[in-house]
Amino acid sequence: MSEQLGLKQRYTIHVEETETDSALQFRFDPSPSKSDIAARRKTPFVVGVNEKPNGLEFDWSMVGDNHAIDRQEIESEIAARMAERQDWQKRVDELVSLIEKWGKELDWSTRRIEKRLDDSRIGRHRVPALLLQQETCRAILEPIGRSTPEDGGVVDLYLMPAYDDIASFYYYDNQWNLHYGDALEGEEDPTAARYVTVAGLSKEALDKVLADMRKYAA
Amino acid sequence: MPLRFEWLSRIKAVEREFVAMRKAADRFRRDAQIDPTILTERLRFGEIVTASENLEATYTIRIFAEFETGARQYWLAKWGTFPRTVELLDGLAARRKIPELRRENAQWVRLYRNSLVHEREDVPASITITAARSHLCHFFSYLPRQW
Question: Do residues A144 and A209 share a domain?
């Protein structure tokens, strides 16, 4: 009796961007398997997907008449990945918006730039990054990726232009959490005492991090 | 993302990768001392020690390579030539009005990288990867946002 392998065991799945922002292509390459002669005969195939206001639109026109493909199974895998992609982008956007708002209230100039990230599961995508400046002190809030335990996410805050580590925002327990090097007694370099403090995300905590950073940059 | 930030981010990413490998190597070394049976594929404990000791140098070479690739991309787009690395840095410093201290620091990282790659008698003072990243990012930040 042969056991039905899961989709991820049967295929290596690549996510590729197209020229349209909202459209992606999922390429399914059959995984090589010595025991599965049929798998070696299978050919790779590509399924397009387009994000529409009322849901996902699948494009099977590149597949042809391959009856061995379980379309429902493929579409549900793609839908799961697209949902993860949207969640992550939304999560980063929420953090950047919050820091942007607080930064302005704390008298920092802010400017958004776009960062492209690569992720093997959800493909190449764009997220916002944020530049902050107060007088000569500059920082960048830069999304790093979502591949942390529980698929959370990490966004770093760097002092520019040297890209010194100042703080990191980790997503877990359904919220962004701030990890920063609370300067120890007599320690002026916050990067030397990284991640001593874990704080909930608040304007006051951000103010303290930015104030420490300015002291260090001065 | 403007190209300058893209490259700064890539330089920084090499340092982060080093930190990940540092932690992995330290843990593997510790675990192998406790349980040598994890040394499969004819791996010897001494090889872990050597790899661990060379790790920072390996990543310093990589971080400089990332920096140099970005700097060359800008130079090539602007002037279309392929100068030697020493001249690339001096040329950029002159054309982008990069302060002398920043130029010297970037050249120091280059010389240190050279000492790791080639056997040399005049070995410059060693430099940590954190300091190398800082010097290289400082220098790179003088390039235009886009090219």
Answer: yes
Is residue A74 domain-resident? no
pTM of the model: 0.84
Residues of chain A contacting B8 with CB distance shorter than 8 Å: 161, 163
Asked if residue B37 belongs to a domain, the reply is yes
More confident residue, A196 or A208: A208
Which single residue is written with the structure tokens 């080093």? B18
> Are residues B1 and A164, on separate chains, in Cβ contact within 8 Å?
no
Helices (H) and strands (E) in chain A, counts: 4, 11
The parent domain of residue A174 ranges over 87-217
How many distinct structural domains can be found in chain B? Answer: 1
A115 shares its domain with A45: no
Do A109 and A170 lie in one domain? The reply is yes
Around A88, how many Cα atoms within 13 Å sit in the side-chain half-sphere?
A: 28
Is the same domain home to A109 and A195? Answer: yes
C-beta atoms of A162 and B2 within 8 A: no
Region at A81 (left for phi over 0; alpha for psi -120 to 50; beta for the rest):
alpha
User: Is A203's pLDDT higher than 70?
Assistant: yes
Tell me the per-residue pLDDT of B43-101, one tens digit each, with 9 for 90 and over.
889 999 999 999 999 999 999 999 999 999 999 999 999 999 999 999 999 999 999 99
ipTM of the complex: 0.84
Q: In chain A, how many domains are there?
A: 2
**How many A-B residue pairs are in contact by the CB < 8 A criterion?**
35
β-pair type (A23-30, A109-117): unpaired
